[in-house]
Amino acid sequence: MAVAERTRWERFRNSAFWYSFTRDRVAMVCALIFALFVGAALLAPMLAPTNPYDLSTIDIMDSEIPPSWAEEGDERFLLGTDDQGRDLYSTILYGMRISLAIGLFAVMLQAFLGIVLGLTAGYFGGRIDSFLMRVADIQLSFSTMMVAIIVLAVFQASFGSELYSKLAMLMLILVIGIAEWPQYARTVRASVLAEKKKEYVEAARVMGFGSGRIMFRHILPNSLSPILVISTVQIANAIISEAALSFLGLGMPVSQPSLGSLISSGFEYIFSGSWWITVIPGIVLVVLVLVLNLLGDWLRDVLNPKLYKG
Fold it and tell me: Which chain regions cross the lipid bilayer (predicted)?
């Protein structure tokens, strides 16, 4: 097994993908920053000086303290405190954890729905294809944010703020995930239309393989390149959508802050001098989304032979 793993690793190191990555400084820096963000989010309980969810560690008298490097800063709080007295550094680590989790799981839901429906539409064609693509067209005609705002506002008004606070993360994943599946479906369908005419698919049919096996075991692996590119960009879009919804008061509750709810909670204090409550989480959010988009652009260039120049 060790020999097989070594051979697989050597094959990967000799691939065009690895060669391009090691020659592209922007991709390497973005991958490093993203890895640091993910690592910091996963290790938040160990890296954070305090637990922002533990009310016993929060003192309201410590609210709106500037960052430690500022003139009136406190050495206990590296990035200052928010309006509730929570250490902003700790809150950003936990908030980034929530934002990344929502982005990842929402994209997993988008990918699952889009891949299944896109494979079905492209492989079977005919009325099934027409019906699924018309549904996708109708859904694409509505803005994701508009649909999310309506659904979340109705849910919050119908079931109350207390229940909504408990289910906020699940609701955000479902709404963002379900609203964006057409992006995957249309891309996968286009790939399937090209792949299903190739000889290996005809050979699989002759051998008596069922439609499900042909779609998921043979066609899907050859359609993964555009899916990987879309997923990278969609994670960034999902994080932005969550931040926007939280800023509007329809996202994560104040007791479980994401990057978006942190920006929202400090926005009313930005002109009174407590700029760090909004600006610092905003910078973290911008950097996170930027590195994901740059990684998505690099993946698109590498995985598309027509664009890749070496």
Answer: 26-48, 98-126, 138-157, 163-181, 227-254, 274-296
User: Are the C-beta atoms of residues 77 and 67 closer than 8 Å to each other?
Assistant: yes
Q: Per residue in 106-131, pLDDT tens?
A: 999 998 999 999 888 888 888 888 89
Instruction: With respect to residue 42, please indicate whether it lies within any of the assigned structural domains.
Output: no
CB 231 within 8 A of CB 237: no
Of the chain, the end-to-end C-alpha distance in Å amounts to 33
Domain containing 158 equals 66-303
Q: Are 109 and 174 in contact (CB under 8 A)?
A: yes
Write the DSSP assignment of 203-239 as a string of letters.
HHHHTT--HHHIIIIIIGGGGHHHHHHHHHHHHHHHH
Q: Using 50, 70 and 90 to split pLDDT, how confident is the model at 304?
A: low
**Could you tell me the pTM of the whole model?**
0.83
Domain count, the chain: 1
**266 touches 274 (CB < 8 A):** yes
Neighbour tally for 129: CB within 10 Å:
18
- On whether residue 40 sits in a domain, the answer given is no
Q: Is 65 helix (H, G, I), strand (E, B) or coil?
A: coil
Q: Answer whether 239's CB lies under 8 Å from 287's CB.
A: no
Q: Is residue 17 part of a domain?
A: no
310 occurs within a structural domain: no
As given in the structure block, the two tokens for residue 145 are 């944010």
Q: Could you give the CA distance from residue 188 to residue 54 in angstroms, rounded to a whole number? A: 45
